[in-house]
Automatic annotation (TrEMBL):
Keyword Transferase tagged: yes
InterPro entries: Pantoate_hydroxy_MeTrfase, Pyrv/PenolPyrv_kinase-like_dom, Pyrv_kinase-like_dom_sf
Domain of life: Eukaryota
Gene3D superfamilies on file: Phosphoenolpyruvate-binding domains
GO MF, one annotated term: magnesium ion binding
Organism whose genome encodes this protein: Phytophthora fragariaefolia
Name used for this protein in its record: 3-methyl-2-oxobutanoate hydroxymethyltransferase
Enzyme Commission number(s) from the entry: 2.1.2.11
Reactions accelerated catalytically: (6R)-5,10-methylene-5,6,7,8-tetrahydrofolate + 3-methyl-2-oxobutanoate + H2O = 2-dehydropantoate + (6S)-5,6,7,8-tetrahydrofolate
Family the UniProt entry places it in: Belongs to the PanB family.
Pfam families found in the cross-reference section: Pantoate_transf (PF02548)
GO biological process, one term: pantothenate biosynthetic process
Signal peptide: none
GO cellular component, one term: mitochondrion
Length: 153
């Protein structure tokens, strides 16, 4: 197995497969491409080994739902899914994705297909930041109204 840098997620690690990300107390099984039973068994075996090694949980990212279900049923520790279907013990999404916070066209290419968007706050964030920039550049901000702290002598 290859170990990429810990900051890679499955939608950023296109082309990488079958690796495990290690952190102090958590091991993440990422981007397993499952085309046959042998690959599914490998994920299950890795998850069991992770449990045996003392992890308190396993994150299953971009793992097919039936495989995530099998892992969840076999493990005594919790499983957390991100793009792994509904059968894990818990779910996680990146809040920037689910709130539509990032409006940059480059980011839109990398929002994972498994992410359901619950809001679109990115446009309001962009407008707020542009208004702030304009106020700073024009001198409308900051003013005494936003400097309430006084020197006590």
């Amino acid at each position: 197995m290859r170990s990429p840098p810990c900051h890679l997620s499955c939608h950023e690690a296109d082309g990488l497969q079958n690796f495990i990300v290690f952190s102090p107390d958590l091991i993440v099984l990422v981007q397993y491409l499952v085309y046959e039973a042998a690959q599914a068994r490998m994920i299950i075996e890795d998850a069991l080994a992770v449990q045996e090694a003392g992890a308190f949980a396993v994150v299953l990212e971009c793992v097919p739902s039936p495989v995530a279900k099998a892992v969840t049923e076999l493990l005594k520790i919790p499983t957390i899914g991100i793009g792994a279907g509904p059968e894990t013990d818990g779910q996680v999404l990146v809040f920037h994705d689910l709130l539509g916070m990032l409006q940059h066209p480059h980011h839109a290419q990398f929002v994972p297909k498994f992410c359901k968007r619950y809001a679109d706050v990115g446009e309001q964030i962009r407008i707020g930041l542009e208004n702030y920039r304009d106020d700073v550049e024009s001198g409308r901000f900051s003013s005494e109204a936003y400097s309430p702290y006084k020197v006590c002598m």
